[in-house]
Amino acid sequence: MKECDKMDIFFRERNISWRRYSLKVGQIVKGNRGKYEVIRKLGGGGMGYVYLAKNLEGNQELCAIKEIIDYYSDPEEKDRIAREFRREAKLLQNLNFRSIPKIYDSFEEDDFYYIVMEYVKGLDLHRIMTLLNKPFSEPRVIKLMVQVCDVLHYLHTQRPPVIYRDLKPSNIMVTENDRIYLVDFGIARFLSSNLTNLTTVGTSGYAPPELYKQHLEPASDLYSLGATIFYLLTNVSPQKLPIAIFNFEKHPYPREYNSKITPEMEKLIIKCVEMLPQNRFSSARAVKKELEKIWKKYYRDHVFENDLLTIVKTIDESGEAKALVENPLESENVIKHHFKELVKEVEENLDEFLPNEEFIEKRGKEKVSYYCSKCMFPISENDLICPNCGARQPNSPFIKIPRATLKLKDSNVFFNIVKEITTIGRKDEEKRYFPDIDLSEYDKGRHVSRLHARIIKLNEDFYIEDLKSKNKVVVNNKYVLQHGVTYKLKDGDIVKIGKLEFIFKK
After folding, report:
1. pTM of the model
2. Over the stretch 312-337, which tens digit does the pLDDT of each residue have?
3. How far is residue 47's CA from residue 201's CA, in Å, rounded to a whole number?
4. Catalytic residues
């Protein structure tokens, strides 16, 4: 059975419509500097996709086409986005650094913007971590992150400075001999005096707190760098507890996850992820110098037997990693990988938001003071719904006063927001999904996913995030949120979840 037939069956069985792709396999698109034939989709998500293509002019070399989707409906906003895209594309083409893919071309078509860039034949760090399923060694991390510091220093010293803004493992490509490339400049922003209307942020867990306040500076990238180093050395994703995971008064220090981390490296991570930008390192070059000190102290004579790609290609029994690196054009394993990535994209991967057996066992051993009134499962003092059985908890002194509310539009129905993280969705007792705000009663057409969104309280502010729902969260009929992108809610905002509209009040 062909992979495309498997895709048809997969979507049909789940009653899911295929998401619109702007570019199709075999399509020839014309840019400002050449023509390109689309070979296949490489990846992507929230803000658009990345396609493998062939330049039909010159030596017909492979290239990558980065797509940026314009979700705005307001004409003035669309004009602003178009102007910013042209400006950024021009500036990106002027970047010239060994760890940044070369930009060949840029063009626009309807609500889509495209940047044609150098194709990097390798694997991203998130993919490698997934295959290894264990922390990197500290010397390996130093070897990689010194290169990241170099490219960040180059970007930050441009005039105006370039703030990458979405540094994370999946945006760091590794090629032969552990050479790195920083990819996906689709949401990079160039600082200027008038750039203040920032409505979205980077990836939860890697995005620093100041981005939620619409503030950017070079130290913002250093926070993301620290979060990336933390993940590579612990194999613990910062996305599990965005922002909160780096509150080391409540959560484990890096060396508690991995005792092989040196004390100096732990101090480096902690300083990078300080909540206030002024408490972090002064520059990417300063981080690099600290990494080099650790290398000289502990790893001066260290020798790497193999580079990461060699290691991964050896242990990956499916052969997908080898195929992606060595033969990206024609390979059954590449096609299978493409299909798996597409399946992963449309499925509701919600495990990270639900208690697993290890979590339940751990909580069961902890000394707790609050239990579900029905099943006696240990819960937090502010839980309205038991995450184990779904029973609504009786009011307590801790939850009488709501911090904010969602009012169902054109009705008198209110939902209180009382927790630091409030999940919104549709109850499914069979699969044990019990969101804090259950919309089952009002969602007759089943347009709301089981875990559709969550509202995160940070200090006195509230942010809403989509949780890979089928029908995205829409704010003010203007902003379509993709997974991993948060929006700072303001009093009176209209929030659309499925077909239901709510008014946010704080």
Report:
1. 0.68
2. 999 888 787 888 888 777 666 776 66
3. 12
4. 166
